[in-house]
Specification:
alpha/beta; D-Maltodextrin-Binding Protein, domain 2; transcription regulation; DNA-binding
């Protein structure tokens, strides 16, 4: 690797090799001829070879100088591109974002936001990583993710969050359930059912949000099965392992064997935020958050 203090000598050499005239080369470099001459001599002394044949009337590259010019141009080009890359990343035009998401976010805002961001900032690569809400929170706190779509209402400091578009709960029933084709179902009509629940250790907010529904209705649910993803909850219902309350957007998963029925007289939004570390902002992340704040439409 060329030492940083020698980089200007490479530029001196490349310009002189193009001009083959000390006066014109010095003018292009915005320096006087003496430092150009001493710089070329220092470079030749460092290499131990003669790069130019020169006299008072003639400057020409030696065979060694001609071969060296090809290599120097590669080095200078890479240095220039490295600078362009650094400036582009700093300006948010190039780079990478690592974005976490829970499985259910595939059916909510996340895909539309990522697509819209791709159109706004095509030079930024978005890498999606499916993780539980708890895993994402830990990764964000340790700055291992730039942002995450998580099932939560609140995030710990110093994380910050942006609420996602609202969703609401519906009853998920096996397709042959007596109430599967009803226009709506009263939660009390399911009081004696076995419920499939979201595992609390994975996403406490998901679990607690469903429990809050039961509490508001004055029901103590009988639960037997716990799952780590909403899609698994729906799949267990399809296999007649019980019934469940799930986000309405899970109907987009098109799982066979289930019906999604509105809950009568009970409006309860699901939780969901886009979270990020407040002290780890980049220009690319700012653009991503701006796109998210505009909505998935």
């Amino acid at each position: 690797m060329i030492p940083r203090m020698k980089l200007h000598l490479l530029r001196y050499f490349a310009v002189l090799a193009e001009e083959l005239h000390f006066g014109r080369a010095a003018e292009r470099l915005a320096i006087t001829q003496p430092p150009l001459s001493s710089g070329i001599k220092a470079l030749e002394d460092e290499l131990g070879v003669k790069l130019f044949d020169r006299s008072s009337k003639h400057v020409a590259l030696t065979p060694a100088g001609l071969a060296y010019l090809d290599e120097v141009r590669v080095v200078l080009d890479r240095v220039a591109r490295a600078g362009d890359t650094a400036r582009a990343v700093a300006a948010g035009r190039r780079g990478r974002l690592d974005i976490g998401f829970t499985g259910s976010m595939v059916y909510r805002d996340m895909p539309a936001i990522v697509r819209a961001f791709g159109e706004r900032a095509p030079g930024i690569e978005v890498h999606l990583r499916e993780m539980s809400s708890r895993e994402q929170t830990e990764a964000l706190l340790h700055r291992q993710l730039h942002a995450g779509f998580i099932n939560a209402r609140l995030v710990p400091s110093p994380l910050r969050s942006l609420p996602l578009a609202p969703d609401h709960f519906v009853a998920c029933l096996p397709q042959d359930h007596a109430l599967a084709n009803a226009a709506q179902v009263d939660l009390h009509a399911l009081a004696d059912e076995t419920f499939v629940m979201f595992a609390r250790d994975v996403a406490p907010a998901n679990h607690d949000n469903v429990i809050a529904l039961f509490q508001r209705a004055g029901i103590q649910p009988h639960t037997r099965h716990a799952a780590r993803q909403w899609l698994t909850v729906v799949a267990l219902v399809a296999m007649r392992m019980g019934v469940a309350l799930v986000p309405a957007t899970m109907a987009q998963a098109a799982v066979q064997g289930v019906r999604f029925v509105p809950i009568a007289h009970l409006e309860h939004p699901t939780v969901g935020v886009l979270a990020w570390h407040g002290d780890a902002m980049t220009q690319a992340l700012e653009t991503f958050l701006a796109v998210a704040s505009e909505g998935p439409g």
